[in-house]
Amino acid sequence: MRENNHFFDAYIRMADAIYGVFNVNCEIVIHDITDVESSLIYLKGDVTGRSLGAPTTEFILKELKKKPEDIKDFNGIITNTTRGKIIKTSIVFIRNLSGEVIGFLGINLDITEMNRLHQVLGEMILPETNNSDQQFDESYATHIDEVFDQITKSTIVELGIDIDNLKRKDRIKFVRHLESKGMFLIQGSTDRIAELIGVSKQTIYNSLEEK
């Protein structure tokens, strides 16, 4: 039984109200991030293919590394999913009485087809313009293992490193990048990272502490 259920009651009512207006191509989610591996506790609609008990996302893990006062809501950001969908998303963080972030409400609108139509119309009647909306990639995983894999793979590509032949400086950079993305909020991640790069758990800790 989760301890913070009463904090989510008003957000559940809000989720139902929002879904009642935007039910086509829309999904409303509520996550309790006191358990990031199984945080999805309420779901209306189906855009990302997830079900109750799904983990939180890579984007949220990274946000949780910030100080509570620095974590801000997001309105109308664009996410590109690993399943090829384009989703317009708003995120409202849920806090307890101490101001700590304990969850979030997410509104996901599938705009894939609308975006294709917009591109066609734009090519026909409008000059090319830059889209200023904030965009990021998201896997919307159904299991925490997918989140782990997505973060590690994207970090390897981002750093341009050879995971099978890591030099000390690259190992330190890799581990610290993972930490900055909230990887160590996932239970057992230290063991898995150590196994992935062929070092001991203590070496992972040392990599985080070295100057």
Automatic annotation (TrEMBL):
Gene3D superfamilies recorded: PAS domain
Descriptive protein name: Predicted transcriptional regulator YheO, contains PAS and DNA-binding HTH domains
Keywords for the protein's UniProt record, in alphabetical order: DNA-binding
One GO molecular-function entry: DNA binding
Membrane-spanning ranges: none
Record has DNA-binding as a keyword: yes
Short name of any one Pfam family annotated for the protein: HTH_22
Keyword NAD: no
Residue stretches making up the PAC domain: 72-123
